[in-house]
Amino acid sequence: MLMANTYTENDLLLYLYNEMSPEEAKSLELELTSNTNLQASLKNLKAGMAVMDKLEAEPSPTSIELILEYSQKSAEKLEEA
């Protein structure tokens, strides 16, 4: 008797990022045709990825300012030594 494949959220992420082998992807796609829970999980992950794609990828001005201040203070300490 064959055991059913059990897929994790990590497997779905590998699939979404095209990091599965073609054989693994084909097996997952076959399971997706009949597994509604897996379909729902995949849909939720896709929605989350879409939200993350819209997020700002640059640091905030405050973060940049704090890093520059820290760098300047570190440089001043080195000059004093």
Q: Which helices and strands, and how do they pair?
A:
Elements: H1 9-16, H2 22-32, H3 36-54, H4 61-80
Helix pairs in contact: 1-3
Short note summarizing the structure:
The protein is an all-alpha fold. It is 72% helix and 0% strand. The radius of gyration is 23 Å and the shape is elongated.
Give a structural overview.
- The chain has one domain (9-80).
- The protein is mainly α and 81 residues long.
- The protein has helices at residues 9-16, 22-32, 36-54, 61-80.
- The chain is elongated.
- The mean pLDDT is 90.
- Helix content is 72%, strand content 0%.
- Helix 1 packs across helix 3 (36-54).
- The chain contains 4 helices and no strands.
Number of strands: 0
- By helix and strand content, what is the structural category? mainly alpha
* SS strand fraction: under 5%
The total tally of domains equals 1
The end-to-end distance, rounded to whole angstroms, is: 73 Å
The average pLDDT is 90
Order of helices and strands: HHHH
**Poorly predicted ranges (pLDDT <50, ≥5 residues)?**
none
Largest sheet: none
Backbone CA Rg: 23 Å
Give the overall shape.
elongated
Oligomer: single chain
Number of helices: 4
Name its key features.
mainly alpha; 4 helices; single chain
